[in-house]
Amino acid sequence: MPAALITGGTTGIGRATAELLHARGYRVAVTGQNPESLARARRELPDDVLVVPADSRVMADTDALMTTVSDRLGSLDLLFLNAGIFRPAPVADVTEASFDEQADVNFKGQYFTLQKALPLMNDGGSIVLTVGVGARRGSPGATVGAATRGALLAMLPSLALELAPRRIRVNAVSPGATETPLFDKLAVPQSRRDAMRARIPFERFGSSQEVAEVVAFLASAAAGYVTGQDIVVAGGYGLGA
Questions:
Q1: Which CDD domains match (predicted)?
Q2: Selection from 174, 1, 164, 205 nearest residue 84 by Cα
Q3: Of 33, 84, 153, 187, which sits most exposed with the smallest number of CB within 10 A?
């Protein structure tokens, strides 16, 4: 049975992906750091899904995570680097603490999780990075979030080339506006939601399950000749003039 590790896998897109992959026969491990989300995931996900508390900013947590994954799953066929945070603020209001937190979670934490997971990756496996349309298309207040997620996109071609000798494919998925707990936490006013929806040709927000289907495709043999790509899942957002 193939095995997958999903960071930020207790809610939203990560959790939807965990549920989908488990249903398709994967052994799955997910990480999170919010006690409530971790407890809910343990209650609601299948009993054999491994739920591991881990803060990607803490290297000791990442080391412990890899030991647990090695002991329980042995090796990995998919690494889905999905953990991330978003703290919107105008440039003038960004604090050093907020900047460091987003950089540490969205880029540094994911980078070193990848580094430490590579010895567990099977040749021919798949790595998927969550980036988001904000890395390419602007939004006021999103400078730090876009830059720290965009850093993953910037390293994508180099990483795909570096891991090609092992036939490990490296791709990104970039969701647009998606109905997730994180989106709800942003408390976007209804007028803003309506304006965002009006710019999407499909005239609706995406679902976590729709993004999960793309991740599952990138993890599968059907995507065996796809690497170094960023797959946008945004209902056509940004296509209009």
A1: SDR_c
A2: 174
A3: 187
Residue 240 CB: number of other CB atoms within 10 A? 8
The full set of domains in the chain, from first to last, is: 3-233 (3.40.50.720)
Tokens 């993953």, located at residue = 152
The sign of the CA dihedral 170, 24, 42, 68 is negative
3-state secondary structure of 3: strand
Contacts of 44 (CB under 8 A, 6+ apart): none
CB 137 within 8 A of CB 174: no
pLDDT tens digit string along 38-94? 999 999 999 999 999 999 999 999 999 999 999 999 999 999 999 998 898 999 999
Q: How far is CA 142 from CA 84, 136, 148, 194, 195, in A?
A: 14, 11, 10, 19, 17
